[in-house]
Amino acid sequence: MPFNILKLAEKALRAAAALLLTTALPAHAAWDLNLPRGVTSTSREVYDLHMLVLWVCTVIGVVVFAVMIYALVNFRKSKGAVAAKFTHSTTAEVIWTILPTLVLIFLAYESAPALIRVEDTRNSEMTIRITGYQWKWQYEYVGQNVSFFSTLAQTSNETRQLGSGLDPQQVENYLLEVDKPLIVPVGTKIRYLLTSNDVNHAWWVIDLAVKRDAIPGYINEGWFTIDKPGTYRGQCAELCGKDHGFMPIVVEALPKAEFDAWLAGQQAPAT
User: Fold this and answer.
1) N or C terminus of the chain with fewer C-beta within 10 Å?
2) Residue 139 half-sphere exposure, CB side, CA atoms within 13 Å?
């Protein structure tokens, strides 16, 4: 009996290792140490706020640790330091109450305009309905009679299968490519309506500074305006089942003339 248990455990470990090697490990994105500036006005505002808060926290951390290290070095017992005996200091309490309050007020003042703008979907030029499914996305161009599903590209899907014998390192954009990307025009304010058909999902594209939950029976909305043509990748950011890691997002931004031609081709009746 113990021998059989050991054999089963060994097989389970081998299967787990093979699964990791054939799926998760080769799918690394760039290990950037900071947020990208992105390709939208919102993403740049988010980046600037992020850097502001980072530097504020850095300064606070340096000051606090400097005081702590100074106290540890200069007021240790071996130097004959004797602990002061007092219950409280009104002055100190006022200082450490007022200073954090001022910092929070400053950060709120700096971030409030961006938080207001990111929710303002007025004057949008296009509306796209995005619906999450296990495990794919549906894009519907409202009022344009264009709708399609976007799923993991066939090459990635075949390669990720356990025992496929295919090398993920040879697959371009492994686990990050789709069969049909979301096509949008540059320089256009695009309003998106986000929901789900089954469980919670999250539509996340970091270059657009977009991360919104897709919730069944509820519609989230937001907007973005992409500044330059390109391909921008994202993923579902809400654990949504066994294939959560296999429903990437690809947004392809085209010049307006190219987008209009693409849209006309999608609207043309099949022959």
Assistant:
1) C
2) 24
Q: What share of the chain is helix, strand, coil (3-state, %, to 5)?
A: 45, 25, 30
Cα angle at 238 between 13 and 17, to 5 degrees? 10
Say if CB 131 and CB 196 are below 8 A apart.
Answer: yes
CA separation for the pair 65, 213 (Å, rounded): 38
Tell me which fold the domain 41-118 belongs to.
Helix Hairpins (1.10.287)
Distance from C-alpha of 261 to C-alpha of 235, rounded to nearest angstrom: 27
Domain boundaries defined on the chain = 41-118, 126-267
Distance CA(182)–CA(174), nearest Å, equals: 18
State residue 18's pLDDT score.
44
Cβ neighbours of residue 208 closer than 8 Å, sequence gap 6 or more = 38, 39, 40, 42, 43, 224, 226, 232, 234, 251
Q: 126-267 has which CATH code?
A: 2.60.40.420
- Give just the sign of the alpha carbon dihedral 264, 266, 270, 271: positive
* Rg of the chain, C-alpha, whole Å: 26
pTM summary value: 0.79
